[in-house]
Specification:
The protein is an alpha/beta fold. It contains two helices and three strands; from the N terminus they run βαβαβ. The chain is 33% helix and 23% strand. The mean pLDDT is 92.
């Protein structure tokens, strides 16, 4: 997996999460702590998700 970090203000929706995985990003840092379908998708595909 390639490395790269994406910083976002809100958790990504499922469509955006699929795009993040397709770009081979290894980490997403988000502002809110809410877990939804997009976050679960990222975690299932090996993307590290952190809250700032």
């Amino acid at each position: 997996m390639a490395s790269g970090t994406l910083y976002v203000n809100a958790g990504p929706c499922l469509t955006c999460a699929k795009l993040i995985v397709s770009c081979a990003l290894s980490r997403v840092v988000r502002r809110d702590g809410h877990t939804d379908e997009g976050i679960e998708f990222l975690k299932r595909h090996g993307v590290r998700v952190d809250v700032w």
